[in-house]
Amino acid sequence: MRANVSIEVIDLLHQREAEFIRVWECEQKIREILPDFPFPDPPDLPSRHKKVKPAAKKTPQTEAPPASQASAAIRRLVPREENAYRLTFLYNNELQTSFQMDRELVRMLVNVKTTDFSIVSVETVLFQDAEHWKTIETLYKP
Predict the structure, then answer these.
(1) How many Cβ atoms are within 10 Å of 14's Cβ, its own excluded?
(2) Residue 64: left (phi > 0), alpha (psi -120 to 50), or beta?
(3) Which residues contact 125 (CB under 8 A, 6 or more apart)?
(4) φ/ψ of residue 56, rounded to 5
(5) Potential cystine with 84: which of 8, 21, 105, 127 (Cβ 3.0-4.6 Å)?
(6) DSSP codes joined into one string, 5-72
């Protein structure tokens, strides 16, 4: 993936996360007013669709390519103890944080090396909301 495409994807994912937080905050305010409010099911997002790939021709392979040390350090979350990854990163020389649940996305991001973006650390956390979370383990710190 080219650097400018990586940056654009990171920007869009950041916007997506901000909107999910906004929806969560709205739902919390509604729950304060009406604790038993029957929320409708969430919309069918494109990211929840499984893509059907055409069958690939089988070719003999010697070995799978080795994973980088950074992405190999990103393990699965431990159920009931951890529910998110907390990413600390430099974006345009500004330190920012993000909470993610998608392990494959986190593994991809730790391998992105551009002048405008770099991962500073990845931690597993027990997440309640943006202000309330507990660090469980640091998985990656260059």
Answers:
(1) 13
(2) beta
(3) 82, 83, 84, 85, 86, 99, 133, 134, 135, 136
(4) -85, 150
(5) 127
(6) HHHHHHHHHHHHHHHHHHHHHHHHHHHHH-TT--PPPPP--GGGSPPPPPPPPP---S-PPPPPHHHH
User: Coil, helix or strand for 109?
Assistant: helix
Q: Which two tokens stand for residue 16?
A: 């997506």
What is the rounded radius of gyration, in angstroms, for the C-alpha atoms of the chain?
18
Q: How many C-alpha atoms does 56 have within 13 Å on its Cβ side?
A: 5
Structure tokens at 109: 């991001």
Determine if the pTM surpasses 0.90.
no
Give residues with Cβ within 8 angstroms of 100, minimum separation 6. Answer: 17, 84, 85, 87, 106
Closest residue by Cα to residue 121 from 89, 76, 82: 89
